[in-house]
Amino acid sequence: PYIPPVCITAFVRFNTEYSRGIPITEKGISEKHQIKLTHADNILTFEFAALNFRNSHKNQYAYKLEGFVEDWIYLGTQRQVTFTNLDPGEYTLRVKGSNNDGIWNEEGTSLKITILPPWWKTTWAYTGYTIVVIGFLFAIRRFEKNRERLKHQAELEHIEAEKLREVDH
């Protein structure tokens, strides 16, 4: 009847802009409740364990990544899951496990994962894009008004020159 607690035991990032192909293992992941990652963290591997030590090779696991897949995915005795190319956003990894007798810990454990967008997709970048577009439209409008003013001024000078020519004639 023992319901084993579940914990996330390891977290490894691959293909980050800093790793240069070498996996980065995060320390103390079992104590964290949330992590923030950049968009460059392409491959994420989480390892977990149900803390039942009697016939632990028969412990079973299931996970779901809220915000990506809402259904539980049963892994059998496999103790790790890998995600690739997650879009920027907020996700919650939920893991549950069972003991060797199939008694599930329905509460399990969870980890909030925030993947930050690249700088060119941030709110500040979109604000800058908007300012540039508005500035460009303003410059075009100003150019057109200036052109109209010069055209009108040239017409007035032409009319004045015609009047002077008539007076001289």
What does this structure look like?
The mean pLDDT is 92. The radius of gyration is 32 Å and the shape is rod-shaped. Helices cover 27% and strands 37% of the residues. With 169 residues, it is an alpha+beta fold. Strands 3-9-8-5-6 form a five-stranded mixed beta sheet, with no helix packed on it. Strands 2-1-4-7 form a four-stranded antiparallel beta sheet, with no helix packed on it.
General form: rod-shaped
Element pattern in H and E: EEEEEEEEEH
What is the averaged pLDDT score?
Answer: 92
Q: Please give the radius of gyration in angstroms.
A: 32 Å
Any low-confidence stretches, pLDDT <50, length ≥5?
A: none
Q: How many separate helices?
A: 1
Largest sheet: 5 strands, mixed
Q: What's the end-to-end separation, in Å?
A: 118 Å
- % residues in beta strands: 35-45%
What is the helical fraction, as a range of percent?
25-40%
Defining traits:
alpha+beta, 5-stranded mixed β-sheet, 9 strands, 169 residues, 1 helix, 4-stranded antiparallel β-sheet, rod-shaped
Compose a concise summary of this entry:
The protein is an alpha+beta fold.
Write the layout of secondary structure elements.
Blueprint: E1 6-14, E2 24-26, E3 34-37, E4 43-50, E5 60-66, E6 73-76, E7 80-84, E8 89-98, E9 104-115, H1 123-168
Parallel strand pairs: 3-9
Antiparallel strand pairs: 1-2, 1-4, 4-7, 5-6, 5-8, 8-9
